[in-house]
Design a protein that fits this description.
1 helix; mainly alpha; single chain; 70% helix
Length: 73
């Protein structure tokens, strides 16, 4: 965490188990939010690109069948 400029690792020996669990849950939620912020838009773009690629491959396959072009292997 220090590489990112964050200093969130703080020893808290006085915390009880319930407080530690709550703290860890908050950290997990925070990390999920960061992941969504960083990757959310990229996942949408990747999904769109995959759909476009599939549509193009389907179009090419149908065109090959119509023009009776042999499939190269």
């Amino acid at each position: 965490m220090l590489r990112l400029g964050c200093d969130i690792h703080i020893e808290k020996p006085s915390m009880n188990i319930a407080d530690r669990v709550a703290d860890l849950r908050n950290r997990v939620a925070w990390l999920k939010n960061v992941e969504f912020c960083l990757l959310g838009d990229q996942n949408d773009r990747l999904t769109k690109i995959k759909a476009e690629r599939y549509d193009m491959e389907t179009f090419n396959n149908n065109l090959r069948k119509q023009l009776k072009i042999p499939v190269e292997k």
